Amino acid sequence: LPSITGFRVSNSGQLTPIPGSTRSLSEDPYSGCAQVSFSPDGDVLVVTERFAVDPPSDNNQAPPGDEGLIVTFQVNGDGTLSNKRLIDATGQGPFGFTFSKQGNLFTTEQFDGPAGPTLGAATAYTVNSDGSLTSTAGSIGNGGTDTCWFVLTNNGRFGFTSSFFNPTPRISSYAATPQGGLSLIEGVAGTVQQGAADLALSRNSKFLYNINAFTGMVTGFRIGNDGSLTQIESVQAHPPSIINGVNQAGVLGLSAS
Question: Which of 47-51, 59-63, 166-170, 250-254 has the lowest mean pLDDT?
């Protein structure tokens, strides 16, 4: 079953497991764990599970097919975690996420990935001190398919998501507010090929980069003052990932400084 474990980092960079830090997530063996990150203040740990469904109870009757949980934990002083909270996502399939400086959570929603063409979306929450989440935006569609990654500019004004699969691969742009508000600016802010994977911003948030998992290309965009994107280059960072004549998702991650 899906679980997480904590580690301490020594001054020399070595990792040591924290005794008693392992915690189970949902009870779904096919939960599709996606990302785990601390809130900016380090007090709450957040995990997304794309496919998991919270078991029905007297207080939770999730509709059929409503898949996707966000799991949160309060972080104790010794690095262990509190009991988990299983939170039903606003939409379906919460995947990649990021936090604003105010501590709001912005996450993508993949809505069944390639089985949900054009249903990709994003949403936002306030992260409360007890680990609960308060929705601050509905499920805001962008017309993409399998929306997976989310980045937020340093000033917190603009968010960008990437949608992986045909028929609608794209980079979409969103406007964000300090209160956790979120609205779509452009469904297709940047044109990309199928395989659009991770996103990364330059340190000053003037440039956005996207890596293609199939072609190995990194595409760069200039970010305008209004959140618009202008493509500036494409660089062959890796050879195309093709096995037996079939495209494979060979590279997924990307970082920029």
Answer: 59-63
Of 145, 128, 148, give the one whose Cα is nearest residue 32. 148
Q: Is the pLDDT of residue 56 over 60?
A: no
| Tokens, residue 109 | 């929603």
CB 51 within 8 A of CB 58: no
Contact 158, 190 (CB under 8 A): no
Cα–Cα distance list, 230 to 172, 198, 201, 223 (Å): 13, 18, 14, 7
pLDDT tens-place string over residues 188-225: 999 999 999 999 999 999 999 999 999 999 999 999 99
- 76 in Cβ contact with 34 (< 8 Å): no
Euclidean distance between CA atoms 186 and 190, whole angstroms: 9
User: Residue 144: helix, strand or coil by DSSP?
Assistant: coil
Three-state secondary structure string covering 58-116: CCECCCCCCCCEEEEEEECCCCCECCCEEEECCCCCEEEEEECCCCEEEEEECCCHHHC
Give CA–CA dist 110/158, Å, rounded. Answer: 20
* pLDDT band, very low/low/confident/very high, at 60 (cuts 50, 70, 90): very low
CA 52 to chain centre: 16
Helices (H), 155-238: none
- Which residues 6+ apart lie within 8 Å of 26 measured at CB? 1, 2, 49, 52, 53, 54, 69, 71, 86
Tokens of 235: 């660089």
